[in-house]
Amino acid sequence: MEKRNDHELVEQISKSDYKAFDELYFRHWNHLLKIAIKKIGDEDDALDVVQELFTEFWDRRGKFTIEKSVGTYLVSSLYYKIFMLFRKKGIEEKHIKNYTSFIDGVESSLPYEFAEAGAAHTEMISVVAATIDQMPEKMRAIFDLKHKQSLKIPEIAQTLGISPQTVKNQLSNAMTKLRTATQGQVPGVGTYMFLLWLSNLS
Fold this sequence. Notes:
Layout: H1 6-13, H2 18-40, H3 43-59, H4 70-89, H5 94-97, H6 100-103, H7 119-133, H8 137-147, H9 153-160, H10 164-181, H11 188-199
Helix pairs in contact: 1-2, 2-3, 2-4, 3-4, 4-7, 7-10, 8-10, 9-10
């Protein structure tokens, strides 16, 4: 039997095909778990986050479409899940401290948790995933090395044979594209905080 691509699997999942869900799950599980462990630093929490991501993906089957890369959509969803984990636990790590002052005074304006955002969450993640897919090749490569492989700026520069300043410029331009693309998404403050967190991940 010919191997089905990710979009074919998503189409079958929308029809409650659990075998298709299993295939997508095992195709992406390990990669997502590795990212989660690197970002969170705790394997148990990472397992919980990835499992919750796939549980919600199944529960919301048929209620959303993924026009671009399914892999990018899942990674973008994972970023948001990790962000909400840190926010829920109140972890004051380096990448959280960068916007602690921003959170003060606006917490009450966040009406929904991530899992309750429903269509707004799906739309925001879809926009983020599509924007990443549409980035110029070099920009996308740098963004992936930074956020999918957790390389530091000097490591990215060495890997690609470019200057650290070029890496910084490309990452800055990538975040500008993401902020522009997600303007007007709901909830606005939550989207901004997520992108701010993403831009400061180390």
